[in-house]
């Protein structure tokens, strides 16, 4: 059987990129010697079958494994100084790859929009850093044309879709996904990040992790919109909702005020249920259904208003964390065309379609930017988006 020359330094680079445990890889068929290969000093001769198995185990393209020179590692500025709970953390390959995919889409969209004569998005950096949470909330509502009570009388998924549409109308590109590419093995972890924003003066892009609940996704989207208005990039992972820094706490409070735009009504609603001897977790759940944010976020807001105790917050937080774990165990499915459509910003898909139709963008490049593999999937995506006419 023909063999392929592979350099140990390239294998070590691939292991670092994937975050895989070499000992675990060694349990795969034909890869028992994998840890030893990593420590070799000279080139290795491996079969195509073994190299393919390595690529599968590390989730690294075959072509990357046969490079003679280790690719230069360039960490995205967005994650270079990233922390969780005030501790420096290294981003997973899934997060790094998703940021790369989104930057590629953003770069193409920016060039396309400039070529079509679009200028700067006036929302970006429009709110000064010294603005209060209330002022930021008011600017979010104004910038997205959100009427008072906009979140009421909607289902949780309708609220998110409504806000996403308003953000897109305001020139913000909003992408959503639950995994990198089409591999179920590359599921995005909400404990690592819930959303991120890639700031740009023409086409700011927000990505939301679909493995969250709709209430959490609504909060994340509003949070990142707050960052756009303040003019700052961010990877959002604040599971506590209270925020670990002054700016994060201010944005989180602005998110609450964007949704709960009548404080007196909120106070009266919470107090009535206390008077009716309703359990705090049920009060929180009722408010979550009423306003569309998570039970935890609204309990923390009630705590700030003196309506809930520290123990109430701890109880609702514990119940919320249990629900996140239950969500992670649940599977997903459904119509693939509708799924693809839900992942992509409609304005972005329209630009791709128009570029393909004009001949300024090849079908292969268009499919690559959209993350679909065939013309059949492309046609299905356009139909699901209502762009097939």
Order of helices and strands: EHHHEHHHEEHHHEEEHEHHHHHHHHH
Class by SSE composition:
alpha+beta
* Tally of discrete structural domains: 3
Q: Largest sheet at a glance? A: 4 strands, mixed
Strand segment count: 8
Q: Widest sheet: strand order?
A: 5-7-6-8
Overall mean pLDDT stands at 88
Q: Report the span from N to C terminus.
A: 52 Å
Domain IrrE N-terminal-like: 199-298
Pfam family, one: Peptidase_M78
Protein name: ImmA/IrrE family metallo-endopeptidase
InterPro entries: IrrE_HExxH, Rad_response_metalloprotease
Would you write up a description of this structure?
The protein has helices spanning 8-18, 22-25, 34-38, 48-58, 62-65, 77-80, 93-115, 133-143, 156-169, 214-230, 246-259, 263-275, 280-291, 295-304, 310-329, 336-343, 346-358, 363-370, 375-385; strands at residues 3-6, 44-47, 83-84, 87-88, 173-177, 195-198, 205-209, 234-236. It is α+β, with helices and mostly antiparallel strands. The protein folds into 3 domains: 3-65, 434 Repressor (Amino-terminal Domain), CATH 1.10.260; 80-260, no CATH class; 336-385, no CATH class. The strands form 3 sheets. The chain has a 4-stranded mixed sheet, sandwiched between helices. A two-stranded antiparallel sheet has the order 1-2. Helix 13 (280-291) packs across helix 14 (295-304). The radius of gyration is 23 Å and the shape is globular.
């Amino acid at each position: 059987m023909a063999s392929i020359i592979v350099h140990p330094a390239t294998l070590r680079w691939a292991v670092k990129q994937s975050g895989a445990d070499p000992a675990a890889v060694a349990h795969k068929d034909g890869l028992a010697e994998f840890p030893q290969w990593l420590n070799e000093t000279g080139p290795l001769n491996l079969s195509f079958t073994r190299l393919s198995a390595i690529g599968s185990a590390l989730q690294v393209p075959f072509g990357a494994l046969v490079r003679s020179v280790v690719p230069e590692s360039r960490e995205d500025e967005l994650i270079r100084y990233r922390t969780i709970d005030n501790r420096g953390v290294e981003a997973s390959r899934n997060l790094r790859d998703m940021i790369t995919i989104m930057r590629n889409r953003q770069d193409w969209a920016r060039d396309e929009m400039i070529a079509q004569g679009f200028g700067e998005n006036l929302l970006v950096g429009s709110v000064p850093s010294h603005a209060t949470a209330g002022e930021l909330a008011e600017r979010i509502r104004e910038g997205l044309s959100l009427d008072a009570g906009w979140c009421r009388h909607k289902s949780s998924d309708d609220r998110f879709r409504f806000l996403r549409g308003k953000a897109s109308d305001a020139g913000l590109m909003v992408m959503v996904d639950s995994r990198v590419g089409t591999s179920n093995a590359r599921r995005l972890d909400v404990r690592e990040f819930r959303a991120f924003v890639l700031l740009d003066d023409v086409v700011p892009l927000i990505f939301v992790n679909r493995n969250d609940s709709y209430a959490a996704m609504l909060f994340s989207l509003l949070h990142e919109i707050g960052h756009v208005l303040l003019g700052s990039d961010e990877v959002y992972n604040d599971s506590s909702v209270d925020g670990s820094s002054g700016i994060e706490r201010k944005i989180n409070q602005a998110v609450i005020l964007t949704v709960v735009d009548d404080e007196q009504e909120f106070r009266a609603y919470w107090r009535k249920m206390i008077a009716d001897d309703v359990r705090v977790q049920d009060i929180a759940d009722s408010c979550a259904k009423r306003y569309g944010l998570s039970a935890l976020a609204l309990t923390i807001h009630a705590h700030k208003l003196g309506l809930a105790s520290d123990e109430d917050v701890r109880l609702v937080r514990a119940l919320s964390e249990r629900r996140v774990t239950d969500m992670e165990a649940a599977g997903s499915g459904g119509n693939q065309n509708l799924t693809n459509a839900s992942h992509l910003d409609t304005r972005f898909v329209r630009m791709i379609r128009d570029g393909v139709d004009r001949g300024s963008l090849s079908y292969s490049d268009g499919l690559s930017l959209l993350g679909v593999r065939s013309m059949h999937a492309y046609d299905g995506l356009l139909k699901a988006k209502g762009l097939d006419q």
